[in-house]
Amino acid sequence: MKNLITLVFCAVFLSMSSISYAQTAKKTVILVNGVATEVMLNADGTIESQSKEVPDYMAGYIKPPANLTRTVSTSNPIINEVASEKAGTSNIIAFGSDEVALDSKDMESLEALIDQINAADKGFVLLRSTFDKSSTSSDIITQKRVNACKKYLELRGVQPNKILISLEPGNTTSQEVSVFIR
Question: 10-59, pLDDT tens digit by residue?
């Protein structure tokens, strides 16, 4: 009888430990050093044990070459194309010192460009200005100036996806927003 109680106790203990083990570990396939491997993962994501490699698990996927690198461009080819000399003429919207709102003269200048923008073969407009890269306030003022021009054009019917913005760091803050039409 004593052996039977011990046997039942051991069976209950083993089943409880396997239940708790099942709750804390999960069998899954992950890539270990680029090889699909069946593993047991703990609840915190650590590998408890590795079972076996799983051949053909990644069948259909192409592994990128080891020398794959990403290059960072300092210029945007679309903006460069729009602002190039062959893209059309540049129009200047001049702002006063520390001013960010359009005055009536600036609104008239932008109004005169709307027909040109809509008639352009690609219908893009680029608003470009520079800011002093060493000054946070210069960056903010330049952003507000360009956004004022953008909002005015949007209010006058130019589609927002046709308006490109280029804020370029420099050594001085430009008091102007250049408008290029393509």
Answer: 666 656 555 544 457 888 888 877 788 898 888 888 888 888 888 888 77
What residues does each domain of the chain span?
A: 24-69, 77-181
Structure tokens at 163: 């308006």
- Correct CATH for 77-181 of 3.30.1330.60, 3.40.50.300, 3.20.20.70, 3.40.50.150: 3.30.1330.60
H or E segment at 142? helix 136-155
Provide the whole-model pTM.
0.54
